[in-house]
Amino acid sequence: MNAAAEPAAPGGELAELTPRAIVAALDKYIVGQAKAKRAVAIAMRNRYRRSRVRPEMREDIVPKNILMIGPTGVGKTEIARRLATLAGAPFVKVEATKYTEVGYVGRDVESMVRDLVEQAVRTVMEERREDVKELAARMAVERVIDLLHPETRPPAAQTPGNPFAATLGSIFGNNFAGAQPQPPAPPPGAPTADAQRVRDQARADVERGFYDVRLVEIEVEESPSIPMGVVGGNFDGGAGGDLGEMLGGILPKKRVSKRVTVSEARRIFAQEEAGKLIDADAVKREALRRAGEHGIVFIDEIDKVAGREGSRGPDVSREGVQRDILPIVEGCTVNTKHGAIKTDHVLFIAAGAFHISKPSDLIPELQGRFPIRVELDSLTAEDFKTILTQPQNALIEQYKALLATENVTLDFRPDAVDQIAEFAMQVNEQSENIGARRLHTVLERLLEDVSYEAPEKGGSVTIDGDYVRAKLQDVVRDAELTNYIL
């Protein structure tokens, strides 16, 4: 066994994330669906196991992609999202229906991988900014002091020449205007004792917020904007994104004067200084590594593109979309503006209701790339009760917290919770079954009057079974009203 394997996914110790621990963590937010939780827990644990095997075997171990089958609102998306958060892995959710076959107008399937890389870059950049936050804040304070007391500013080092003049001088010779070498400037000297004393006092005042509301004038850099359509390529960050970024790096930055408060200036300066301290190339390398080794792509509505030969009309490209998705799932190299990424070890989780179509309607090659199939159960009234009360940040607790900001205290009695769950179940049976999302609709209708009058009334409101029946019973019984209101 290779103990010195590649680093684990950030955001959690994978060694401690056993399948049992992953399921227990998912249970805090998602009710039921034990089979799906076990499947994703094993898939995540296999990533840790892969990182511990011999390097020569590691490349041949590919993730076992998962196909989730179940009606809407039962937790398919939430399971994948919580799993990614738990492991600190780059995660992106895409809809299969927004992709089209090559040759048709629409997004190409490679954009899902580019989105994954963008998410990884944002995550790594945030981590690096957090690492240099304190140093950047100190440097920002020094720049603010330079604004408030410019006379105490240390002598500046040699000002760099015009880079374009230097470049043209190297082409046309040093006789080019502006390319003449500048004499070296003397090294910056230390500030005098009086200047240092003033700066120390100003630093203390700035840090305690004494100058926060004072207005100062600062110069900020604005990247040149390139009009859409000037550069070629698609709009998903492919070749057009690369060319736009390249031109943006060559064109000189425009400096704009702004009048802001000292507090705002500190924030702007801290961002600029953090950007100078962070190695952008290292961020891209780490982001590409994380996306390729730990990334999770959730493809929703996969059943909507399930179709075989012989389709006509608007569904003509359904099988084409599947064939375009196939090489991404099989493993290929996708070029992004941050570099190339291999998708061999990205975990793909596809999901769909499959009310009209069946998983066997997918092309055989794509079926084979999703070896693990999990069927999620429809939610019952008992599940609705649990969703309302037990998960962390449960729905009822959310409404209590929202109205508490208006000095309204909600008291939900157990019989009210039972009645809400029963009504939600009835409406799902009478009309479309949208799972737990029905609870949002029912609760909004139930608390509409309380939410409207909360700022003026305040006080305590008791929600019991009679209150729920009085507000919702007529609507639930009337099928026409149910279709339009709930």
What would you say this structure looks like, in words?
This protein has 486 residues and is an alpha/beta fold. The strands form four sheets. It has a five-stranded parallel β-sheet with strand order 2-5-8-1-9, with helices on both faces. Helix 1 crosses helix 2, helix 6 crosses helix 10 and helix 16 packs parallel to helix 19.
Topology summary:
Blueprint: H1 19-27, H2 34-52, H3 55-58, E1 66-69, H4 76-87, E2 91-95, H5 111-131, H6 133-148, H7 163-172, H8 193-207, E3 215-222, H9 239-250, E4 254-261, H10 262-277, H11 280-294, E5 296-300, H12 318-330, E6 333-336, E7 339-342, E8 347-352, H13 364-368, E9 372-375, H14 381-389, H15 395-404, E10 408-412, H16 414-430, H17 437-446, H18 448-457, E11 459-463, H19 465-477, H20 479-485
